[in-house]
Amino acid sequence: MNTRLVDPRTLWTVLAMEAALALPLMSLPAQGDRLPGLLGPLLLVALLPLGFLSVHHLPKLRDPSWRLLTGLGLALLTRAIVSVVPSVGLPGLATWLARSIVPVAIGVGLWWRGGALSVAELTPAEVRTEFSVLAVCLLLVLALVRPFVLGDPTLLGASVAVFAVGGLIGMALSRQDAADLVSLSYGRSLAAVTAVLPAISAVVLVSVLRPELLGAMWLTLARIIQLALLPIGLLLAWLASLLPRGSPGPPPTPPPRPTPELLPDPAALAAAQERMAWLGTLIVLTLLLAAAGVALLVARLLLQNWIGSPTRGSPRQVEAVVVERTGTPRADAQNFFGWLLRWLRRRFRARAGALHANGHVPDDGIADSWAAYQRLLTWAERQGLGRRPAETTGQLQARLREHAPETANAVDLLTRTYEWERYGAVHPPADRLRRLQAALKALIDR
Questions:
Q1: What phi and psi, each to the nearest 5 degrees, are found at residue 304?
Q2: What is the pLDDT, as a whole number, of residue 206?
Q3: Residue of 100, 18, 28 lying closest to 51 (CA atoms)
Q4: Cβ–Cβ contacts within 10 Å for residue 372, how many?
Q5: DSSP state, 148?
């Protein structure tokens, strides 16, 4: 498998292919009411290469919080250029923001995608996969989603041309990167020209053909497609003839004529609208304030919890947390019942209660190494050396030995026995449990 990374200049071809696919898809919702047409979609699709360049040249924008806020501002700026606020005041501003939700979301997505490609590490195989997937998606858009795309020949032709040129150049450059060729200074330019030259030659050849010859070519192609699909059509017609045909039903009953209603008095309707105008203004103002509060809350959560607030300097190194695995169900049940018995003994025996009140560990028998290790942890906490959240058993053992060298043998015995039983399922024999109890007593006496 080839794991070489492509040259950063090859990523521009990926940007061209993705822009060619995004332009038709967002052509309808990205239009403006003041400047309808291609200007709105072109301004939004320009955020894709702009995000690529900005994140590459401005390291501060690599922080997700600044990148998100900048993308929102640029997307709103593009909408302010091509659309207009319908009326003066808060209701008009709320209407404009509601109409701009979908275009702004598309613009932020394109801006974020461009920034992600700036720091992406793509292999030549991934570039070829991107070309194949985007080509299929573009064909589906042009064939199936055509009613939801702006029917502008310039838009569709430019999208197909940009995708074809970007895809051909990207395939040629990715092959060079995969082979790791030491090319000349003009080697990449030569590869790009070689990739685009067949497509340009085909366009020039078709353009110089006579219209009659071109029409004959299209008619021949249509006849070939018709002959290829003729067996399928005959099979479908034969299958349809096998279906039973029902008897014709009676003609549908014509719908009754609606009774004309009297129109309300225009003066009374205008008076009612004036009386209810304050209610509409109050509702719009309340909704706007609620939306602003929710937006501020979401932005605060993004900046503080998930994305992170902008910070200067290098980020602080986070200490790795090491988590121990839990024991088996049988061992946990034994530990629980052992703890319950020990608690009952301490509860109903006055001597054990007195020792516990004086801050000592009781000297009753030890059921397993887990109980002995828990008493070691209790002793360490009373010495001010409690186990830290990100500390393993070996690290705690080394710290206790460094603090109190005379307790090294007892600490080593308790730690090794605990690790054998917890991680190796080796239960200590009775004589080793007595040695653990003696080691604990030595620690307590110290």
A1: -95, -35
A2: 59
A3: 18
A4: 23
A5: G
CA distance 159 to 19: 8
Alpha-carbon gap, residue 332 to 365, rounded angstroms: 18
pLDDT at 162: 85
CA distances, 341 to each of 114, 247, 337, 374, 375 (Å)? 64, 87, 6, 16, 16
Neighbours of 273 (CB within 10 A): 10
In this prediction, residue 356 carries a pLDDT of 41
The C-alpha atoms of residue 414 and residue 376 are separated, in whole angstroms, by 8
- Round to whole Å and give the CA distance between 302 and 64: 9
Contact 383, 411 (CB under 8 A): no
The rounded distance, in Å, linking the Cα atoms of 158 and 161 is 5
Residue 163's nearest CA partner among 7, 25, 2, 8 is 25
User: Do the Cβ atoms of 67 and 107 come closer than 8 Å?
Assistant: no
DSSP 123: -
Tokens at 204, concatenated:
């020039």
Angle at 379 between CA 377 and CA 380, to 5 degrees: 65
Give the number of C-alpha atoms closer than 13 A to the C-alpha of residue 282, restricted to the C-beta side.
Answer: 5
Q: What is the pLDDT of residue 318?
A: 47
Q: Where are the beta strands (DSSP E) in 54-210?
A: none
* 52 close to 42: Cβ distance less than 8 angstroms: no
Tokens of 203: 């366009």
In the chain, where the domains are located: 8-208, 329-445
| One-letter amino acid for residue 327 of the chain | G
Task: Give the integer Cα–Cα distance in Å for 348 and 350.
Answer: 6
**What's the distance, Cα to Cα, between the start and end of the chain in Å?**
63
> How many C-beta atoms surround the C-beta of residue 278 within 10 A?
9
Q: Is 384 left (phi over 0), alpha (psi -120 to 50) or beta?
A: left
Instruction: Specify the 3-state DSSP secondary structure of 27.
Output: coil
Residues near 109 by Cβ (< 8 Å), separated by ≥ 6? none
**Against a cut of 0.70, is the pTM above it?**
no
The amino acid sitting at 415 is T
How many other C-beta atoms lie within 10 A of the C-beta of residue 166?
22
Sign of CA dihedral 203, 205, 208, 210: negative
The alpha helices in 119-147, defined as continuous H runs, are 124-143
Mean pLDDT by 10 residues, the chain (446 residues): 71 87 84 81 89 84 83 88 82 83 88 85 83 84 73 79 84 77 63 73 62 65 76 79 68 73 68 70 78 74 56 47 54 73 69 43 60 84 81 85 82 85 79 82 78
